[in-house]
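Table S2 (continued). Query chain:
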Amino acid sequence: MDPINVFKGYGKVENLEDQSQPRNTNTTIARTRKPLITTVAIFSILLLTLTIGLLLGALIHEVETEPPESPSLSSNSADSLKAVCNVTRYPESCFSSISNLTSPKPTDPEAIFKLSLRVSIAELTKFKTTVSNSNEAALRDCQTQIEDALGRLGDSVAAMEVGPGEKVLTEAKISDLQTWISAAMTDQETCLDGLEEMKSTAVDEVRTKMQRSREYTSNCLAILATIHTLLDKLHMSLH
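Corresponding output:
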C-alpha cells in the first residue's frame, strides 16, 4: 500500500471525527435544554393558573359581599304594581284600580296589598248603596251580608295600622287576614245565592254590580297568599 495514500486516508478519518464532534456537542446541549424548557413552561402554566384563580376568588368575594340592590321589583313603580297584580286572578282590575289611587305608586307588596283592601272596601260600599233602599226581602238579606263583608275588610285594614317598631304583617296576622278576607268573599257569594234561591228579579243586576267588588276582594286574597314570594323578589321580609 502506498504510504502517502494511507496517511491521506487517515487524515480523512480525522477530519470526519472532527466534523462529527460539534454535532454531538449540540445534541447534548439540546438534550440539556429540553427538560429546562419543559420545567419553565410547566412553572409558567402553574403561575398563570394560580393568578387566574386568585382573580376569580377576589371577584366572587366582591360579588358575594356587595350590598343588595335597593328593594324594588322594578325601577318603574308601574312595573312593580303589575308584578304584584299578576299573581291575582284579575290582574287588569287589580292594576287599574290601584294605579288610580295614589302617586307615586308604591313598590312595596305590603303597601300594595293594603291599597287593594281599600279599593275593595270602596267598591263594596258603593255597591251597598244600590241595595240599601230596596224593600225586597232578598235584597235586605243581601245588604246584611254586604255589611258583614265590609266589617271584615275594615278589620283587615285596621290590623295593618301599626305603631313605631311594630310589623305591618306577621305570620299570625296573615292567618287572621286570610280568614277575614275569605269570609268577606263568602258573604258576597251568599248574597247572590240568597237572591237566586228566592228567585229575585234583581239577581242579574246585583251580580253585574257586584262583579268588581268580588274581583277586588279576590285580588286582596291572592296578593296576601303570595306575599312571601313577592317579598323574596325584593330581598325583603315581613316588616
